[in-house]
Amino acid sequence: MIAIGLGEYIITNDESETIITHALGTCVAVIMHCPHSKLTGMAHIVLANKPKDIHLREVRPAYYVDDFLPKMLLHFKHSAHCRVKDIECTLIGGAVSKRKNDLFKIGEKNVETARSILDSYGVKYDDDETHGRVSRTVSIDISTGKVNIKKQMMII
Fold first, then answer.
1. What CATH code is carried by the domain that includes residue 148?
2. CB-based contacts of 105: which residues, under 8 Å, 6+ apart?
């Protein structure tokens, strides 16, 4: 089992492995699976947009949707020769805060930014497990591409 944390990702085709990430609240997991090559990737993405401030310290590679998601897609298309129409993509997370006056709307922005990027590349995706007020732990079996989701109520 390969566990990834905030701002981390893994891309592999090792069919003996399962990839997992825990406690997705407002963060969004992007999962891509190519059934032909078994290439599978998961990213635990924290925020929608990378700040333009060039003095900002670099963070983990999959921290921002707009920065990382195009790189992940290009890896699948070019390095692994997966056709866009063959990529099975799932978006999970992007929960809505329990606070009534959520000014930042992080979960909503994460999901909308991911959808926009995937749409621009013509990638079809399943986003049935986005939003809501639950925390999700997500895993994918690389050999089958089966995604498993466990939910629990959010504390905050």
1. 3.30.1330.200
2. 96, 97
Measured distance CA(109)–CA(104) in Å, rounded: 8
Judge if pTM exceeds 0.90.
yes
Number of domains in the chain: 1
Its domain, for residue 64, covers 2-51+58-153
Write out the chain's pLDDT in tens, 156 residues.
999 999 999 999 999 999 999 999 999 999 999 998 999 999 999 999 998 875 556 678 899 999 999 999 999 998 888 999 999 999 999 998 777 777 789 999 999 999 999 999 999 999 999 999 999 999 999 999 999 999 998 765
| Unique residue bearing structure tokens 């591409």 | 145
